[in-house]
Design a protein that fits this description.
- The chain is of the alpha/beta class.
- 41% of the residues lie in helices and 20% in strands.
- It has helices at 15-33, 47-53, 61-66, 84-98, 160-176, 193-206, 218-227, 239-253, 293-306, 309-325, 338-348, and strands spanning 2-11, 36-42, 70-75, 103-109, 125-131, 141-144, 151-154, 180-185, 212-217, 234-237, 260-264, 272-276.
- Helix 1 links the parallel strand 1 (2-11) and strand 2.
- Helix 5 (160-176) packs across helix 6.
- The longest helix has 19 residues, at 15-33.
Length: 351
């Protein structure tokens, strides 16, 4: 029996509802798979913790998390009471950076039973590999002066090490899929960083001659994801570009509420962190109608990373059968509760 120690941070709002639901599903998957089990340890960190303690997580939080195999995160945010930059930098980004989770992956595919807003119903299935540690989200910069002379400077940082690491991961992933990598760039408008990005992409591509490659400017790429998403397999992008493209991926699937994400420490020196793309949705928190599928699909990504791909595919198949049967929460046009959808997914594991 292989048992994994998982740190759980339900966070805020609906995170406190969908995380326990997904844990139930993952325990059911483990029970059916055999030889696999999870031990869950829950931490009450987030905005409520901040309001009580003045910090999003305790000072030794990173040290505590380092001892676990993986981290299962819910939604973080309580914007009316805690500014977003406080909640983001105090928990999510702090974990990503200090545990060296340098790669973010987010899949998007046409799910059976979930209508897409796209007119064309051709199936699509792509993954965005996002550089997760630097780029446009660096902390370098500042603000000076006031009133009409106020000035803000934000510096993007691109190192060859981090850029090449993200691209190498994208090529490795493509070799396991359909063998095509698209690079998101903007070298016709961003003078230094994007030509550098293009140079590194060409260098990495020469190391993978069996993989088909292309580079597309981010504006045209965003349009192409709407017009012809089936043309893409693996997309590699900088921190900002990847962030935007993955939200678009959730939208063309039919709901950002089902979109999953993984923050990977690819060297496996520290735990990776798995989280849904959706927010804390305080307007529906506590009503029992939150959509658990994004958190459940996030669990599938964790199974994949742990090496249990078959179990992960079984879980995704159960999710799609539930959607196809019409068991959906109100955000997807259904009438079912969080618990009813969760129960249905567990039952569908045996179908």
């Amino acid at each position: 029996m292989k048992r994994f120690e998982i740190a759980v941070i339900p966070g805020d709002g609906i995170g406190q509802e969908v995380v326990p639901a997904a844990m139930r599903v993952l325990d059911a998957v483990a029970e059916r798979h055999g030889g696999l089990a999870f031990t869950w340890t829950t931490f009450p960190w987030g905005c409520e913790y901040y309001l009580e303690h003045g910090e999003m997580m305790p000072a030794d939080g990173i040290q505590t998390l380092s001892s676990f195999d993986q981290i299962f995160l819910g939604a973080v945010g309580m914007p009316r009471l805690v500014p977003d930059h406080v909640s983001l930098w105090g928990l999510l980004l702090k974990i990503r950076r200090e545990l060296e989770q340098s790669i973010n992956i987010r899949p998007a595919r046409r799910l059976t039973g979930l209508p897409s807003p796209l007119r064309d119903d051709t199936p699509f299935d792509f993954v965005v590999v996002r550089e997760n540690s630097e780029g446009e989200y660096s902390e370098i910069g500042g603000r000076i002066h006031r009133d009409k002379d106020e000035l803000a400077i934000q510096s993007a940082v691109f190192t060859k090490k981090a850029t090449k690491r993200a691209m190498a991961y994208a090529f490795t992933l493509a070799a396991q899929r359909r063998g095509r990598v698209t690079s998101a760039t903007k070298s016709n408008g961003i003078y230094h960083s994007m030509p550098f990005w293009d140079d590194v992409f060409r260098e990495v591509a020469t190391e993978h001659p069996d993989i088909e490659t292309e580079s597309r400017h981010i504006d045209a790429l965003a349009a192409m994801l709407v017009m012809k998403p089936q043309a893409f397999d693996v997309i590699v992008a900088s921190n900002l570009f990847g962030d935007i493209l993955t939200d678009l991926g959730g939208a063309i699937m039919g709901s950002i509420g089902v979109a999953p994400a993984a923050n990977l420490n690819v060297e496996r020196k520290y735990p990776s962190m798995f989280e849904p793309v959706h927010g804390s949705a305080p307007d529906i928190a506590g009503k029992g109608i939150a959509n658990p599928l994004g958190q459940i699909w996030t669990g599938k990504l964790m199974l994949d990373f742990l090496g249990y791909h078959d179990a992960g595919e079984r879980l995704l198949g159960a999710m799609e059968r539930v959607l196809a049967s019409g068991v959906k929460t109100p955000d997807l046009g259904g009438r079912h509760s969080t618990q009813e959808v969760t129960d249905a997914v567990i039952a569908a594991l045996d179908e």
